[in-house]
Amino acid sequence: MTLNIPPSAPDKDWKSPLRELSWSPPGTGTQLEILAREALFDRVPHALLTQPERLDFHLIIVCHGGVGRHAVDGEIVPMGRGVVLHIQPGQIHQWAADATYDAWLILAPHLPLVPVSRAVGSRVREASDEALHAANHLAEITQHSSMRRAEDRLPAQRAIIDLLTIALGLTAPDPLPAGPYGTLYLAFREDVAGLPDVRESLSRRAARLGCSSRTL
């Protein structure tokens, strides 16, 4: 993938300049790219990777070994075998400087079978060994010579994307948090998505949602 990365100074702080990355893969009609996490770290300087970035495409991190962490919308997500982290278009994510876990990275501009929602926070799934095996097999299919033919690439990639989203459990909707505040949680997500201004006071947002600041 050709990453559209403007220059910026190395800074691990979330307050460092935000990079906007656009979908610009090699070839015409490409709807999918799969690569190893290590390949991305070999391709792009760590000083750039460890700064916050916002994508206009989907990034799915499928961890199949090791441990680590990843940040999505300011939330730290522990990474380990079987963890599937889905970063949706418009979300802000950040790689950890000490990332050493093994993972496949799945990049795609569209995921037709995935429920559409305004993304706030992390979307995490736990994949079984069988699902990881299936994902690895599908990743190998993308390397097949037939995928390099322009007339075959698009329909094949669309089929692989559908199979991957099913195998990794991404077609399931996000579960509500446990406890009595599931409905309020959804309302809060919608409110943040519609009014993401971080300068707004907590009390004002709570009043708009009809609850106390402490509850929120």
Report what the structure shows.
The chain is of the alpha+beta class and 216 residues long. It is 29% helix and 23% strand. It has six helices and ten strands, in the order E-E-H-H-E-E-E-E-E-E-E-E-H-H-H-H. The strands form two sheets. It has a five-stranded mixed sheet with strand order 1-3-8-5-6, with no helix packed on it. A five-stranded antiparallel sheet has the order 2-9-4-7-10. A hairpin with a 2-residue loop joins strand 5 and strand 6. Helix 3 runs antiparallel to helix 4. It is globular, with a radius of gyration of 18 Å. The relative contact order is 0.14. The N terminus is likely disordered.
Map the helices and strands.
Elements: E1 19-21, E2 33-36, H1 37-43, H2 46-49, E3 53-55, E4 58-65, E5 67-72, E6 75-80, E7 83-87, E8 92-95, E9 102-108, E10 123-126, H3 129-141, H4 150-167, H5 182-194, H6 202-209
Helix pairs in contact: 3-4
Summarize the structure.
With 216 residues, this protein is of the alpha+beta class. It is built from six helices and ten strands.
